[in-house]
Write a structure and sequence with these properties.
Layout (H helix, E strand, L loop, with lengths): L2 H12 L3 E6 L2 H13 L5 E5 L1 E2 L4 E2 L2 H10 L3 E5 L4 H4 L9 E5 L1 H4 L4 E6 L1 H6 L3 H5 L8 H11 L2 H21 L3 E5 L9 H7 L7 E6 L13 E4 L3 E5 L5 H12 L5
Parallel strand pairs: 2-5, 5-6
Antiparallel strand pairs: 1-7, 3-4, 6-7, 8-9, 9-11, 10-11
Length: 255
């Protein structure tokens, strides 16, 4: 399998257009993209599909409509989602950025996608992309090829785990509020059912009624966030083990 084959598979999942994969950083890629769009559109908007704190799913289609009405272009970040979880171009995005760290297990590779409409408006797009980053080397390409085959099953398992954790936290007497797009009643649940595919992402945020007992040895999947919130990241985790960790952290609290 060549890098072109992998890029073509990304294009199909995204809803058409063109995808390139480089060895670079997300921040640098976003900077290149925004400068490119500024030379062809009146404005450019950068939107995280599944981000923010507390976690929320963005209404990509509505944002795309507003942006296009003013002559702008919309770039979406597919972190925590991937092209498996959101068909960005079908939702109206003009471009996307996706770190492939969740696919490969290491940082360094980034996928950049351009919608068909954007490709038609940017002459010599391939030439424009020269200098945006290096192509994956043989080791990275081999890793990407091997890890992409089971990535969707790993992603779906992470989403299932997050759903279980969110339901558990919602029922816990020491938790005052839970944010997870997969929960009915979540502020972005209805949007998420339209935007996301095969799961609602691996991240759950919650607010406790007291101080959560995070010891130095607490696993990295449980994190303290701004606004006195806490985040559970469910990549590669067993839901039963995560719930045991949360029981230990939340158990001492008084409801």
């Amino acid at each position: 399998m060549t890098i072109g084959d992998i890029e073509n598979a990304c294009e199909l999942r995204a809803g058409g257009g063109r995808v390139r994969i480089f060895r670079t950083g997300v921040r640098e890629t976003v900077g290149h993209l925004m400068r490119l769009l500024e030379s062809h559109f009146s404005s450019s908007i950068y939107l995280s599909v599944l981000g923010e704190c507390p976690i929320a799913c963005a209404d990509v289609r509505s944002e795309a409509s507003r942006t296009h009405a003013s002559g702008g272009a919309l770039v979406v970040d597919l972190a925590n989602v991937s092209t498996f979880g959101c068909a960005a171009f079908r939702e109206g995005a003009d471009a996307f950025v996706e770190s492939l760290a969740d696919v490969t297990g290491e940082h360094g590779l980034v996928a950049i996608g351009f919608s068909r409409d954007l490709v038609s408006k940017v002459p010599d797009l391939n030439g424009t992309l020269d200098g945006w980053g290096d192509l994956p080397d043989g080791r990275e390409l081999d890793l990407l090829e091997r890890r992409q085959f089971d990535f969707d099953s790993r992603r779906r398992a992470a989403c299932d785990c997050a759903q279980v954790v969110a339901e558990y936290l919602r029922c816990h007497p020491s938790v005052s509020q839970v944010w997870y797009p997969g929960l009915k009643g979540d502020p972005t649940h209805e949007v998420a059912t339209r935007v996301l595919q095969s799961g609602f992402g691996p991240i759950v945020d919650f607010e406790a009624r007291g101080t959560v007992a995070l010891a130095p040895a607490s696993p990295a999947c449980l994190r303290r966030m701004p606004q006195e919130l806490h985040r559970v990241v469910c990549w590669g985790e067993d839901p039963k083990e995560l719930i045991l960790v949360l029981e230990g952290a939340l158990g001492p609290l008084s409801p």
